[in-house]
Amino acid sequence: MEAALNQALLSGFGSKPSLSSTRSCILLHKHHTWVSFRAWSPLPCLKGSSKTVWLRCVNGEERAQAAVLDLEGSEKGKLRRKKLVVFVSGGGSNFRAIHEGCVQGSVHGDIVALVTNKSGCGGAEYARGSNIPVILFPRTKEEPEGLSPADLVAALRELEVDFVLLAGYLKLIPIELIQAYPRSILNIHPSLLPAFGGKGYYGMNVHKAVIASGARYSGPTVHFVDEHYDTGRILAQRVVPVSVTDNAEELAARVLHEEHQLYVEVTNALCEERIIWREDGVPLIQSRENPKKFS
Ligand SMILES: Nc1nc2c(c(=O)[nH]1)N[C@@H](CN(C=O)c1ccc(C(=O)N[C@@H](CCC(=O)O)C(=O)O)cc1)CN2
Ligand SMILES: NCC(=O)N[C@@H]1O[C@H](COP(=O)([O-])[O-])[C@@H](O)[C@H]1O
């Protein structure tokens, strides 16, 4: 394999890049000739171009997929638009912000369904008005039409959902869904996790707790979802000041404004396949403008 890679490299890039580690993979495609390798690492800029060539494993197998990540240009056009499902329990302003992003082009994806435990909530009303299918989950006394976890997973598979976004959903996501969508479920929480998270910390309860604590800063957190409330890997945060005169409603409004922007940006990064996982398991977002930059 090494010889083939060297040959592909030399023919493709004019000089053999230095490998960052024995685990680093190698190469890339010149004339769509793919080679297999294990991990990925940044490769030096292409000869005479400002682009950086990145390689990464696909689905953890010994297959390599590489692309010249100038998402401004041809690469984004080649990336498949991702299929999204959003879970809400209330007004759905984050859901609306993401939907608007999909329609206006700031999110490289499409919302294929809304999931809610409250069929009459504002998010469900907006979905119906936008011709987005509404799925009830879970099955409860109040919502006897709701799906079981297994039926929900089957419905999302049928819709070919790529990513699941929680946005003000107030029920625990079951292990069946967590296992069906590894590293593919995000949640937005209205505090700087790990502070002010967990069971009981939702909506205004969060902002009241922040103010009562005397914290001088707060802000939204977007994190991957695991089987517990708010303990999944943190992906992105924004900071807002907490005024000593703030009430919970004033703080909530300030945080919510940042949520809308943050969730749209993070969702687009997900759709553009710019989330990468550090060796210690921390997820990072690769910059659109400069693929060498991560946050
Ligand atoms: N498996 C997971 N499920 C969910 C997560 C998660 O991280 N892992 N995040 C929540 C959203 N959330 C915070 O971001 C959250 C929502 C609700 C609660 C909570 O205490 N709920 C109450 C019920 C409230 C109600 O029904 O009105 C409870 O469970 O007693 C905490 C955190 C979404 N799901
Ligand atoms: N712990 C979960 C939680 O509190 N989520 C919060 O519920 C609100 C939903 O607003 P929206 O329905 O207008 O998007 C948002 O502030 C979100 O962070």
Automatic annotation (TrEMBL):
The species this protein belongs to is: Turnera subulata
Q: Which family does it belong to?
A: Belongs to the GART family.
GO molecular function terms noted in the UniProt entry: phosphoribosylglycinamide formyltransferase activity
Q: What is this protein called?
A: Phosphoribosylglycinamide formyltransferase, chloroplastic
In terms of InterPro entries, this protein maps to: Formyl_transf_N, Formyl_transf_N_sf, GART, GART_AS
What broad class of enzyme is this?
A: transferase
What's the encoding gene here? PUR3_1
> Any one cellular component term from GO for this entry?
chloroplast
Please give the chief subcellular localization of this protein.
plastid
Tell me which EC number(s) this protein carries. Answer: 2.1.2.2
